[in-house]
Amino acid sequence: MRIDIVTLFPEMVEAVLNTSILRRAREKGLVTFRVVNLRDYATDKHRTTDDVPYGGGGGMVMKIEPIARALDALTAEACGAQKPRVILTDPRGRQFTQELAREWAKESHLVLLCGHYEGVDDRVRQHLVTDVVSIGDYVLTGGELPALVIADAITRLQEGVLGDQEAPEKDSFAEPILEYPHYTRPVEFRGWRVPDILLCGHHAQIARWRRQQSLRLTRDLRPDLFNRLTLSADDLKLLDEEITVPPKSRKHLPVTSESLEETASQQERGKDTDGTRTRDHS
Predict the structure, then answer these.
(1) Per the residue annotation, which of 2, 47, 91, 152 is the catalytic one?
(2) 171 catalytic, yes or no?
């Protein structure tokens, strides 16, 4: 896959593309990123890409000519006969979702056009792009961050990018449901203990607990997503079920600082951990 990002701030974009999963995908040749400086397609000596708006008003508007030249050049370089999908980041666009990420991840060539200033000459939206997209209902300084969000979401879905081949399907929004909580060492910190179910080694129960947590979190935090779920009979049961550690698995639970302190206290009182008094051999 090839992703071109057209921007007035190439250094900002390159800094993110050269980090973490995006960098690894780039180095492995799984995704080809090209950062295009829009000023390279301006023709005056000042490399002007914006001008005052017709009709008056504050701010500056990105000019259509440099954008058209850049898009013409990128289209001419298109991989194969199919023209690239050209996406403008704009708050008026449809909201970017995981479903949209999966759809666009199948494309061979994407061009992400970053808006800036007061906006982009509307003839760009009307005639030069195939899609207009927003990542949320809030105001940002420019389209670079939305473009990077889109690039990251799509890159993760490319085969071979993630170490775990099932990882994209396990992520939140692979279906309209939030991901379950994650924990790592230590078992206990400031009295906050990892749920025993995750420590017992009973993988079937752990899987049920994780599904339950995903369902409950989605119901409580994102009812809009929860209402889109098709719940199975087992899902409905899980919502109200109390999942506990099987008795045979309790022996696998690690000792915590709390239990160690209790044992030490009992020993200091001259008692064994089973409550019987020890003999004094002195």
Answers:
(1) 91
(2) yes
Taking a C-beta distance cutoff of 8 angstroms, is the pair 66, 49 a contact? yes
Give me the CATH topology for the region 2-156. Alpha/beta knot (3.40.1280)
Q: Which of 171, 179, 188, 235 is catalytic?
A: 171
pLDDT of residue 31: 98
Residue ranges of domains in the chain:
2-156, 188-264
Common-topology check for domains 2-156 and 188-264:
no
Look up 156 and say whether it is catalytic: yes
Indicate which residue of 51, 65, 118, 175 is catalytic: 118
- pTM for the model stands at 0.81
For residue 215, the model assigns a pLDDT of 97
- Annotation says 24 is catalytic: no
The CATH class, in words, for 188-264 is: mainly alpha
